[in-house]
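Follow-up to my earlier ticket, as requested here are the two runs.
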Amino acid sequence: MTIVDLHTHGADSYDFRWNLPGIRGRPYSRTDIGEKMVEHCFKTEKSTLVGVINFDDNRWQGIFEDLRRVNGYEIFDSDYLVSLVRDGKRISFVVGQEIPTDRGHVLIVGAGKNIEGRVLYDVLKNARDLNGLVIADHPLASVIGLQEEAIDKYRDYFDAIEVCNSNYSGDIRKRQEELASRFRIPGIAASDSHSVSKVFSSYTRFDNLDFSDANKLKASMRNCLRSGSYSIERGTNGRLEAVRHVVAVASALSGLKLGILKRGKYALS
């Protein structure tokens, strides 16, 4: 059994660097995110799989560079899947992208590269061509979530619906579960975390995943979803975490506008 959190970002904003004389470093994204993720995952009782998700940037490339520098572990590596083994326990990281389409956000896992464009149908088609897992993340959420009409129209493209996102609770979760049940799309849980400590605040347990390569991993996840060979664990990040994230992102964008910050090589211009 593997504990899986496919929706994590690692930091509020990635690779925004100081643009002030004599000051170096990244104020919002630590350079040791990969190392901290490894430590966090090895604290769990089971093997783990974490999705490292881009959002209008290339953060997974930067975090994967950090992961490959971690010492003391046996590393199995591909372009978009990294597994580290210690004392017989495996922790793995797979790349992904959250895309704000014209109809709401979509989570793509394992496509291996960023998908360009913002038109929902084009994004879904490109994701399918790249054999990426397609997930409706935080559906029905106002402004950012796909709504029922869009999911219904393109339901055949979706591998799963996020019926538990740790940043949301209460009535919206009930509506998400009802939506997944009615459309017969598997429901998963994920943290949508923007800090390492919140990874696995919600997660999905999968049985019999195949980590021999990235394509076999995706195929085994699809098989588990279709057969119901999985379960979800619900949790919340808390309202303060949501406020902290909004404030941090707003501060980063303000810093760019004022010239206090600049974009690094993993931040898209």
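Run two:
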Amino acid sequence: MTKVIGCLIVLVGLAFTQVAKADVAAFCDTCELNSEFKTFAKNMSYGQGEGTEIYVVMNSQKDIVRQVAVTKELDVGGYITLATVSNVSTNDFSYYLSVKAAFSNPEYVVTMPPTSNGTGGESFLSWRPETVYPAIFAQPWVNSQLAKQTSFGALVWFAFTGRMPDSAIAVVVFLNGDVAKFQLINPKEVNACCSYIAGTARDKNGNFINDRTAGGTGASSGGHYVYPGPTGNIIIGSPTVYHSCVKVSNGSWYCEIIYQ
């Protein structure tokens, strides 16, 4: 019996498979030695056919990431299974750390830039995917450039998504003070990166904005999380912190954590 038992396994489909790139990403929080990563990957490869597949195995407790190449060769009486372990690249490991950081905080505030006025950033009811999604996509916690470089990025992102499906939410503040939540679902494609979470639209006073014509159902959800501040600011609550957002002249909103 190996240490495979008790490990959380998240298998990701082969939609992002590329030559010499990762095919599967999984968590093994008891793996520390290369031999343990190798055994874990070989056990995962039970249904693998002839050829080589690349397994990215992550210990999210100690931040150890290994790439295991598992090769199966047809032999008399069955397959011979060989496995080699290597470190992931510096870029891939940096991306793993950024994804872990993104999922460690349930929600992130994203303010629309002044340049989005008139193009979908001025208010919630006028929001457009082609304006809002790039603003979310460009955030450091998405680290989209690294995600686009390799299939590793998408595999790791979706592995974390499978483990913590309610994380990685952008709380978007529009230029007029409207607030709405968007789920980040795909870090590789800006046009399909996100999805408005129905019922979360609020004006700067915390009142629900009927979203029936803007991607919602017309019913409020998510409770009260937006409040008017004493100085014209907006208070936004999340599961872990509060943000205070103030208007900078006639430009964008500036938000900072006020309580933790």
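The only thing I checked on run two: Residues 1-20 have pLDDT under 50 and may be disordered. Let me know what else you need.
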